[in-house]
């Protein structure tokens, strides 16, 4: 078992204006010596990573769910997600990596995956399998960015950002087609769900109750739950607990904290209550989960 989950940062030089890079991958190796880390073990980044698989096969584990790599496809990873890619020899593709600051500065109001909780409904999570037309569109955009990175003149940075914006807009367009809800939802409801999810991501370890999130959002708990249920088919409490259990899994595997310490870190005052919730959601006690996963990563 890993003693602590590695958190990787991108090495940008002081004179680099764009905190963005493209790495080509062929086989099991990344074809760039300046890539910041080896990827044989689960890890997470403090940056975004877009995996564009153009050929071959393998497996991609994202937050304890294993997905088969089907080329062509795009896997979108947010900062903080735990993942590991197992590449086969014939694998090929590209990694697009960029900092949060770069993304927020240049694409401030862009939701690549609209209302991020919606993605939990999708069988493949944040993964877009591509048809030939889609592949051609995305590949052409990537090749245009690569060409511009090589030529680099006074206009290159602005051109690169423009190509990337189209790339992200096309991702949003395609992800939006995959997300369906049984009930008709309004844009205001989807925006509310998105803001709620952001708050949960920022405060899950300290705030466990729907009422407190509703107060921050200026909504009643009933209206908040109605919007979330309509958009995600989950209750607000389920989204909060799912986020807590994801972090619990990460801590159980990638830290030396005891089960009781994990419970306290997530603001559960009663460790036995934490154990009951964890077992209900996973089918295993924290100790059994830790043992099972440590054997897997041995």
Automatic annotation (TrEMBL):
The GO terms describing molecular function are: DNA-binding transcription factor activity; sequence-specific DNA binding
The cross-references to SUPFAM superfamilies, in alphabetical order and at most eight, read:
Homeodomain-like, Regulatory protein AraC
Keyword annotations: DNA-binding, Transcription, Transcription regulation
Is-annotated flag, keyword Isomerase?
no
Keyword Electron transport assigned: no
Q: Which Gene3D superfamilies match?
A: Homeodomain-like, Jelly Rolls
Query: Record's superkingdom?
Result: Bacteria
By its UniProt entry, which SMART domains does this protein fall under?
A: HTH_ARAC
Where in the numbering of this chain does the HTH araC/xylS-type domain appear? 194-292
Per its record, how is this protein called by name?
AraC family transcriptional regulator
Organism in which the protein naturally occurs: Draconibacterium aestuarii
